[in-house]
Amino acid sequence: MPDLLLELFSEEIPARMQAKAADDLRRMVTDKLVAEGLVYEGAKAFATPRRLALTVHGIPSRQPDLKTERRGPKMGAPDAAVQGFLKATGLTSLDEAKIQRDPKGDFYIALIEKPGRPAIDVLAEILPVIIRTFPWPKSMRWGARSGKPGSLNWVRPLHAINATFGLETEAPDVVKFSVDGIEAGQTTYGHRFMAPAAISVRRFEDYEAKLKAAKVILDPRARKDIILADARELAFAQGLELVEDQVLLDEVSGLVEWPVVMMGSFETEFLAIPDEVIRATIRNNQKCFVVRDPKTGKLTNKFVLTANIEAADGGKTIVAGNERVIRPRLSDAKFFYETDLKTKLEDRLPKFEQIVFHEKLGTQAERIERIERLAAEIAPLVGADVEKARRAAHLAKADLLTEVVGEFPEVQGLMGKYYALAQGEDASVAAACEEHYKPQGPGDRVPTDPVSVAVALADKIDTLVGFWAIDEKPTGSKDPYALRRAALGVIRMLISNNISLSLWDTFSNSVAIYRQSDNKAVIAGTDKWLEGGKQGESVRETLKRIAKGLGASGLQEFFADRLKVQLREQGARHDLVDAVFALGGQDDLLMIVRRVEALGKFLESDDGKNLLAGIKRASNILGIEEKKDKRSFEGAPEPALYNLSEEKALAKAIDEVKAEASAAVAKEDFASAMSAMAKLRPPVDAFFDKVRVNDEDAKVRENRLKLLNEIRSATRAVADFSKIQD
Amino acid sequence: MDASLPAHMRPERSFQGFILALQRFWAEQGCVILQPYDMEMGAGTFHPATTLRALGPKPWNAAYVQPSRRPKDGRYGENPNRMQHYYQFQVIMKPSPPNLQELYLKSLAAIGIDSAVHDIRFVEDDWESPTLGAWGLGWECWCDGMEVSQFTYFQQVAGFECAPVAGELTYGLERLAMYVQGVDRVYDLNFNGRDGEAKVTYGDVFLQAEREYSRHNFEVADTTMLFEQFKMAEAACKKYLDAGWQKNSESGKREAHLMALPAYDQCIKASHVFNLLDARGVISVTERQSYIFRVRELAKACGEAWMHTEAGGAA
After folding, report:
1. What CA–CA distance (Å, rounded) separates B274 from B268?
2. Closest-CA residue in chain A for B178?
């Protein structure tokens, strides 16, 4: 079966857009082929800086014929109806129609055969549409045609379209179409400098081979392999090691059609700059790789560049040129770094008074002040030294105002740490300057040093409470202030560091700090949270007492949802998570997680499974009887009404288990609480074996139902078992 | 490169020879070679030969040097390549010719950059000027890892779609000349291509100016006067725009504009005054946005007026 070759030859396509464009081209063409009844065998797409290419092989040479039946009028219908039917179906007379019997009578049926069209004609129809509607993230007009409406939009000027279709054994045909004055043909061009001449191409195999001969490697994966292998080799030859960088590799491979990898060097004096700054300078500005010494792990004064040409002088000029560019860049970086070192971090802080963090949440200076106070309150709860936490929060944002961070935003935090160490700060304080931003995403490291944890929590909670107070919550896919990430960060820090902390208390403290700092927007936004406050009571007392105030903010629920997502992603059963959340009033995330874990383990044991069955049975019976009597059976059972030993045994067990389980829960020992629960199983089983709940004596029946209700309430010490699925 | 040139005129020896080589090359491509616009501006794009001529349907091919003033970039002459005053070489071709990339590469050859030994690349760089209400797509052009030019297909200028699209090239002259001459400090550039006593360097011409203007821009520039000048330029621009509209005597519809260029001068002025105020650090972050917005509104109104003039209107 025939193959399609399509090439769209243009001026340089941005590196970051190439992979998706190749994929879009493949998807759009093959989807359309299938929709036209042309089921192909395989398709591959490629991109270089100057071309998108697609090969689709095994396309049938024609569409299948399409047969459809169309029901017409009844036999003997008026002539107008018959004529209409003939016209619509293209039949010349009713003799060409079949007759179909039907309980309602005999009907004419027309058999319409739509012959399939040659695939090349279908292609000539669909390809221009795909080119005109191609989803570039940004596209443009150009040239004389751009003066008229309806001119083509492409990522950069499109110069040629090649489209051939045919069998391997024959000379293929050109798919005849044109887009905005560009006729499809079979002429492409090689490397811009090394082989710019026109090349006549027939099909994918000779296309790819001829391009290679013309110094163009079509497949981006092949270009990446070459760059990576050559870069490693160059480093290895000098006893060094390439600092691999996938994102940079992807980008660089999209900037060349013929990668030529070379090594350059810079003056060793620049190695006095932190490695990360050297790397950022060389990577961001020059798109070069850096190289480390495998023995020390430190960078060396070498870099690896990828040129797009085999230069006439072997690359000497190119290496020298790149070295000349890198030198002033590193010189700037060194100057920035040394300048930064001359100013103490705290001396930069006054400038934050001029910088607005958020129109309603105040300046950066106000924000830092709040984070300091909150961090000092959180510190003892996470085992951090209060003064160190306060100091760390004081300095943590200061590096935003340094020259190096201004130039390379990706080293924010890290530079703070270096500058803090350089001015003799405590190691924990310095570490917190970097770590308090973490975790940035689900894959990022979680800080563990208590000082870092205190500042990181304070920073994130200040942000969350503030944006909640001014009602700037994430909606749908919109989360401009990354509040989901902040909440998830809080959750991960608490759980992985085993920190038990009341979220409500912490939120209350944050609200109080905002209000004390006289933040008008937050005061206005939180007034409603404080409704029900008593005379002489402080903000935090009120909020802690009437937890519903914060409940109304929705922040608690937001955390619960984030936690559920997180636990589910880790494989916890969502019904167990729901069973624990259904208890309500929980604001210690660590305890919630522990409960879910203990519950999961318990339910895997026989005791757990049987007890769950017993509780479910009790709940079912209660549910039915409650419905029947239209009442609940709350309240203590009357011991005098027990007349079977199993009733007494169960009542006794419930009392014991309740006491034991709550004691264990109070000690946060959920495993023991579960073992205590397990003791309920024999008396519950025995009760259902021997006791008929629906006794004829209404009082006895009511009492037994109350006893069943007690089972349910006893187990609520650990979870709402009714939410658990079998 | 023209081999018949005397040594002191060769682009790799002489800064002025370098400029002359570029002018000559683009003159041969049919561009009119203009002289710099006689007002202070931040980039060659502000020259009416680019901003205004990019609008409207009429063909336009021009090239010129434009001294560019970026008050904030001053370094008192102490940075090897950052200055508050430097030269841009600007080429504008409307509609953009199909071989603009090839022409650009040939222009590099004309100033001594041989594409057989250098690594020349077109790296994505979208251009946007918030003050001019303009944007385009294109590249920064790299030579051996150094950005040497900006290449843009204008899509919109002064808030109006470019129809047809103009291609714009901007060469950073000092940086390119430093590369070609092989010097690491801009002030060491050989300006006139002569040796010994007769040699004049870039530093001889501009170092004192860099020191003086850095002091002026950062420390002394009279901000009270500048605030006033901004307001006056803004008001004058609006006034000239109003006065320039010629309306249909019956329908009152605007039909033609008779003073787009003088009005646009005031927009250029406002923009430069804003840059000076910004360098003096007297404009806060929020005010900054509003000043940029005000200049953009002027630029848009001038663009609209221009499109109702003879050179900017329908053919």
Report:
1. 10
2. A324
